[in-house]
Write a structure and sequence with these properties.
Blueprint lengths: L1 H27 L18 H6 L1 E10 L20 H5 L3 E6 L2 E2 L21 E2 L3 H8 L3 E3 L9 H15 L2 E3 L6 E5 L2 E8 L11 H14 L2 E7 L16 E2 L2 E2 L3 H11 L3 E5 L7 E4 L2 E4 L4 E3 L12 E10 L4 E12 L3 E4 L4 H14 L11 E2 L8
Parallel strand pairs: 1-2, 1-15, 2-5, 3-4, 5-6, 8-9, 9-12, 12-14
Antiparallel strand pairs: 1-16, 7-8, 10-11, 13-14, 16-17, 17-18, 17-19
Helix pairs in contact: 4-5, 6-7
Length: about 375
């Protein structure tokens, strides 16, 4: 019996050691493209020098590359034809990648208790990672409800495909991903209300990850997959949001807590429709840009068709110098294209004012963002 007790105790110690090692590795991961002279430049550390540095960060909403039932042609290349110049024009372009890039079979919808008609699993081709890179997407968020559609194998295949294509990723527990551009270190963290991602239900733990990122980077960008979804979910309510029986987080409180902890920019996804922009303690929070691209993946019509690419100009201290909300419209079967009518920008202006009043982030109906106010954090 004593021998068995010692064996059990040894296994427990080993499990703890493996967990700590894995967490440390995740914390130190800094994915991204292969080093270039620009990317490898020594980061500025002097605050006055950082204030002179300039970069742009573009954020796209929910992005999928088809499904097993309806494969995307040409590894998804047709999805980005109209928006490639916009993506490639940013210093760093990021998107929320929903679904996985794998050829494995056996999704969460196979053999589960949930009726199959109410279950959705999304799988794109591993070669789609190269398509994302060619489109100009530098980093994707994996913290969302479809990142585990094909379990651990699906996620591992996705990460391997992204690494091979040179696309950075974030959104696994304890992970901070740092990209270096123009001598500025930009740290990305991702959150979602699921076990395979940093949790947005544990605010103190989420803040701790931001504070750690702040020690590794000059600018911290938090990506959150949060809030209710649906055609009528354009407003960001006060309090907890419930969708499909899931607690999708207290979206406002969570975003504010991330800024309080040191996040310079908070970018949201998940509602599948446009939401407003808020200015909190001089920082910009964008709660949702709707769907960005998908191949028969998204519901269509009305607010579902309105999309955007948000490009934010920052200095090396994370202060917003301006930016542009580029209105897009999705065309069947889910292809984004510029929308000269600026309908999504106009909607964003309206819901921002209705939801946040004087705290709405200043933006024109043509999508021009103003510099952040001189507020102390």
């Amino acid at each position: 019996m004593r021998r068995l007790d010692r064996l059990v105790a040894g296994l427990v110690v080993l499990a703890v050691v493996l967990f700590v090692v894995g967490l440390a590795a995740a914390l130190l991961r800094g994915g991204g493209h292969a080093a270039t002279p620009e990317a490898a430049a020594a980061p500025a550390t002097d605050p006055a020098d950082l204030a002179k540095r300039r970069l742009t960060i573009a954020w796209a909403g929910d992005t999928m590359l088809g499904s097993a039932a309806d494969p995307v042609p040409d590894d998804g290349a047709p999805l980005f034809t109209e928006v490639r110049p916009l993506l490639r024009g940013a210093t760093i372009a990021a998107a929320n990648l929903e679904g996985v890039l794998t050829e494995t079979a056996g999704s969460k919808c196979d053999g589960g208790d949930e009726p199959r008609e109410n279950c959705f699993a999304f799988r794109g081709p591993p070669a789609g990672a190269r398509t994302l890179e060619r489109a100009g997407i530098d980093l994707v968020n994996l913290a969302n409800n479809h990142a585990w559609d094909y379990g651990a194998t699906g996620q591992a295949d996705t990460i391997a495909a992204l690494d091979a294509a040179g696309v950075a990723w974030t959104g696994t527990p304890g992970q901070v991903t740092v990209l270096k551009r123009h001598g500025v270190r930009v740290g990305f963290v991702g959150y979602a209300p699921y076990a395979w991602a940093p949790s947005l239900h544990d605010i103190p733990l989420a803040q701790g990850l931001v504070r750690y990122a702040d020690t590794q980077a000059d600018v911290v960008v938090a990506l959150m997959h949060a809030g209710a979804e649906g055609r009528d979910a354009t407003h960001t309510p006060v309090g907890t949001e419930i969708s499909y029986g899931e607690d999708r987080g207290d979206t406002r409180a969570f975003a504010h807590a991330l800024v309080d902890a040191g996040a310079d920019l908070v970018l949201g996804s998940g509602p599948h429709v446009i939401r407003g922009l808020e200015r909190y303690r001089g920082r910009l929070i964008a709660y949702s840009l709707g769907n960005f691209a998908g191949w028969h993946n998204f519901a269509s019509g009305g607010t579902y068709d309105l999309s955007a690419l948000l490009t934010v100009r920052l200095n090396g201290r994370g202060e917003v110098l301006g930016g542009q909300w580029r209105s897009l419209r999705l065309h069947a079967p889910g292809i984004p294209a510029p929308d000269p009518s600026n309908e999504s920008a106009s909607l964003a202006v309206d819901v921002s004012r209705e939801d946040f009043g004087a705290a709405a982030y200043p933006m024109t109906r043509r999508g021009a963002l103003r510099a952040s106010a001189d507020e102390q954090r």
